[in-house]
Design goal:
2 domains; about 425 residues; 3 strands; PX Domain; Substrate Binding Domain Of Dnak, Chain:A, Domain 2; 14 helices
Length: about 425
């Protein structure tokens, strides 16, 4: 399972070459949170209370337990620190990480409402089986974040894991809400980048294809699960017929009764099989959400590149205005050029004042371009290094999930063969 592999992910440090990847590798080896702390979401509990508008509501809270990793390594028994968190608090933590680290592919949370479910699976978010799968998903989220070379050392994450009451205040003190509003406006705007980097264009396209193929696979799996469920349950009819038939047969009765038991057992086994299968479907759903996180990183690159191009164009425009003012030659049509022709040139004092003002504006614009260029370069280096890390992790996780899913199908077929082999032996004993 992915949750069980969190520490293995922390140990994996080799990645494809990219600027800044060496420093990420060193950071992962030396300061990974998962190397210093054991983290688990131990249990879930249903509670009732009043919400923000003083209405009674029922909700689920999750117990996060942490303990120093060296305690277990040294054989010391140390009671864990524990905090209770609601799902909405996990959402707040992830939103903070996305805004603070826009160049990282932030791990997704498990789904809030069950999707891509076969018809007998409950979509109620208070259903015990759904809550248990969400508990596993939340633990996976924390393990992924805690093993991330950049996210794992964030102080807010540490507050979230260890402090019961004051961690939200620490989030809001970072200016989180202002950043959130700014991000929403920027991402909602329509803009076109003149010189985007091809690798990010390709990665954005890949994220869309990954999301498309993963969702198609999940839909197909849900349809297959429905049909398999129906086939298994139909075998219950064999059990009923054989059991009723055995009551009127003296010689064949025992064999028919035994065959009926085998069929009933076979029909009843499908719920457990599909529930186990659902855990691997949840791993596929995780990467359905990862595709959106990957696309957000690419979108942020487009935004930083657009801001750099806008700042550069503004600098060019100001320099052109100064050249025109200094030489008296107007290269493009402007209202100022028309007024100069109609009413004559400005006085020398006015002209010098405007030149001085433009020099200041040009200096500010040059500073802005340098800052935007540095921001863009930093985002490219850090984002691409993290995308390569994500791809390596994704290949391993999806391979594991698909292999486990195939193993379940093989075991299901073997069980069917075994049931019919036992049924045949029952018939032979008649």
């Amino acid at each position: 399972m992915m949750a069980e592999n969190g520490k293995d992910e922390a140990a994996a440090s080799d990645g494809e070459s990219a600027d800044g990847s060496a420093s990420l590798t060193v950071e992962r080896r030396d300061s990974n949170l998962l190397r210093r702390m054991e983290i688990c979401v131990a249990e879930a509990e249903k509670r009732s209370g009043k919400n923000a508008i003083s209405m009674q509501e029922t909700f689920t809270v999750y117990l996060i337990e942490t303990r120093p990793a060296d305690a277990a390594a040294e054989g010391r028994v140390q009671p864990p620190e524990s905090v209770w968190r609601r799902y909405s608090e996990f959402e707040l933590l992830r939103a903070y990480l996305i805004l603070t680290y826009p160049f990282y592919v932030v791990p997704p949370l498990p789904e809030k409402r069950a999707e891509f479910v076969w018809h007998k699976l409950s979509a109620d978010n208070m259903d015990p089986d759904f809550v248990e799968r969400r508990r596993i998903g939340l633990e996976n989220f924390l393990l992924h974040v805690a093993s991330h070379p950049g996210l794992s050392n964030d102080k807010i994450l540490s507050h979230f894991l260890t402090e019961e009451n004051c961690w939200k205040e620490a989030v809001y003190e970072t200016g989180f809400q202002d950043k959130a509003d700014s991000r929403m406006r920027a991402f909602g705007a329509t803009f076109r980048v003149r010189s985007p980097q091809k690798c990010f264009i390709d990665m954005k396209q890949y994220s869309e294809e990954l999301q498309c193929h993963t969702s198609q696979l999940l839909r197909a799996r849900a349809r297959v699960a429905d049909r398999v469920y129906a086939v298994y349950k139909v075998h219950g009819n064999y059990g009923r017929v054989f059991s009723e038939w055995s009551g009127v047969e003296k010689v064949m009765g025992d064999g028919l009764q035994s065959a009926g038991h085998h069929m009933d057992s076979y029909a009843a086994s499908i719920e457990e099989i599909l529930e186990e299968e659902e855990h691997y479907a949840d791993q596929l759903k995780e990467y359905l959400c990862y595709a959106e996180a990957l696309r957000a990183v690419c979108r942020k690159h487009e935004l930083t590149q657009f801001e750099l191009e806008t700042a550069s164009q503004d600098l060019i425009s100001k320099k052109q205005q100064r050249d025109e003012l200094a030489t008296g030659m107007v290269r493009t049509f402007s209202f100022k050029g028309v007024t100069n022709k109609l009413f004559g040139q400005e006085a020398p004092e006015q002209r010098e004042a405007r030149l001085s003002m433009l020099d200041e504006l040009i200096a500010d614009a040059e500073d802005s371009v340098r800052a935007k260029a540095a921001e863009c370069e930093e985002h490219v280096q850090k984002a691409w290094a993290d995308i390569l890390r994500f791809k390596e992790e994704k290949d391993k996780d999806l391979r594991e999930a698909l292999l486990n899913y195939a193993a379940i199908q093989i075991n299901m077929c073997k069980k069917g063969i075994q049931v019919w082999s036992n049924t045949r032996e029952s018939f032979q004993k008649m």
